[in-house]
Design goal:
Blueprint lengths: L4 E4 L1 H15 L3 H16 L9 E2 L10 E5 L2 E8 L4 E9 L4 H4 L2
Parallel strand pairs: 1-5
Antiparallel strand pairs: 2-3, 3-4, 4-5
Helix pairs in contact: 1-2
Length: about 100
Amino acid sequence: MTPAKLVFTYKAEDDLNSIFRFLAENHPSNAVDYIDGMRAAIENLIIFPCMGVECKTKGIDRDCRILILDKYLIFYQFDEDDNEIKILRILHGSRKYHELLK
């Protein structure tokens, strides 16, 4: 099987940049390592696209999945027909993500 294509929405890219800026305020070198680790975890979806839990099991009325990484929730969709993984948002678990995913 051909590896899936990984695509980030603008909001997901913005989320990643915001996370980096937040972490870099106190620990710049840790921020780089953390974001690199987050990107590596996301890239694992290329091999295992269905490893995240379905959003509906978390009460989210949207066709997506959630990859949990530490305190962050990575929301994504896997389109089997196009063999594409779209990263929708990357949000801290304490945020009101139900509202942000509308």
